[in-house]
Design brief:
The protein is mostly beta strands. It is about 0% helix and about 45% strand. It has 1 helix and 31 strands. The radius of gyration is 18 Å and the shape is globular.
């Protein structure tokens, strides 16, 4: 299997021990929500509304799942009449029927009027894309390997972004609501910020102990958070990135974290060993939430505290109860 920048599978499946008052064993807070019995690894999710009446999930081998009401269906993806079997790593939307997915070998997909079509071939890039976000303007930003950051203009044309000074780092996620204020994170402790139509390294200090590979980022009016390997979650303060203290997750080594999602009142992080933790944004405290399994979780998305989906290995789709 090609190396997509994540730790070995043996790390992803390691069990997570939950210790202390915030990690006491009890009934799972999440339940399975995939009636399709797919076993493909699922990497990302997007949720439209608190009722989860519309949601999309993407994963390996061109897998696209669409939730309508309470039912999931598998949507076909093709390019010039041929099925797309490339791994998909990220999904974002401008609405329930204008959805974007990106992935392996520079693949960019757009869903309009119920049909998935490939676009972005004008970029001429085969760099794998791991993150995508849709701006209020309708523009789309995608990030990936080899320092790749590209933008879909409102006219529908994809163009490279200005990234001088960022090198060829492998980006893994992008987030934000305004073009000048986006954050992209990736391998080797890289955190980049967009401003004045170009990308630069974020000037906030990162302590040496907090450096590593970052796999997820969440940006909203409540703050900017980054998550990555060995249990690292950082919050951006005025001039530095501050390490967050998660609830007890004692293991041979802290579990890797792959997904972040912000709601109005909470921040969720998911990762190896079926780990799910929630940060109460008012009290700034973290607590474990039992997923009911140990499969690695890669993506999380939601529109409310009780409207969260997380997805992962072996076709895992969980919904918060």
């Amino acid at each position: 299997m090609p190396d997509f920048g994540l730790p070995p599978v043996t790390d992803l499946a390691m069990p997570v021990r939950m210790d202390g008052p915030s990690g006491d064993l009890g009934a799972p807070l999440w339940s399975a929500d995939n009636q399709l019995a797919s076993v493909e690894t699922l990497r990302a999710a997007w949720v439209a509304d608190p009722a989860i009446s519309q949601a999309y999930v993407v994963g390996h081998n061109g897998t696209v799942l669409h939730r309508v009401g309470g039912d999931w269906k598998l949507e076909p993806v093709s390019d010039a009449g041929k099925p797309v079997k490339l791994n998909l790593y990220a999904v974002a939307a401008a609405g329930v029927d204008t959805v974007y997915a990106v992935g392996e070998a520079g693949v960019i997909l757009r869903r309009v009027a119920g049909v998935w079509q490939r676009e972005g071939k004008e970029l001429g890039s085969l760099a794998t894309l791991f993150g995508v976000t849709v701006l209020p303007s309708g523009e789309v930003i995608a990030v990936g390997d080899a320092g790749t950051i590209v933008r879909r203009q409102t006219a529908g044309i994809w163009v490279p972004e200005t990234t001088m000074g960022l090198g060829t780092t492998g980006f893994r996620a992008v987030a934000g609501t305004d073009a000048d204020g986006l954050y992209a994170v990736g391998m080797g402790a890289v955190i980049a910020k967009r401003g004045m139509d170009k990308w630069e390294l974020d000037p906030a200090t990162i302590d040496l102990a907090d450096r590593g590979n970052y796999y997820a980022v969440s940006s909203s009016s409540a703050g900017v958070f980054v998550a990555g390997e060995y249990g690292k979650v950082l919050r951006r303060e005025a001039t530095r990135w501050q390490r967050e203290m998660l609830a007890g997750t004692a293991a041979p080594s802290p579990p890797h974290l792959f997904g972040l999602a912000m709601t109005a009142s909470d921040l969720f992080v998911v990762g190896a060993g079926g780990l799910i933790q929630r940060r109460d944004m008012q009290t700034a405290t973290w607590s474990n939430e039992l997923s009911g399994g140990t499969s690695a979780l890669y993506g999380v998305a939601g529109a409310g505290a009780r409207s969260i989906l997380t997805v992962g290995a072996l076709g895992t789709v969980l919904r918060r109860l």
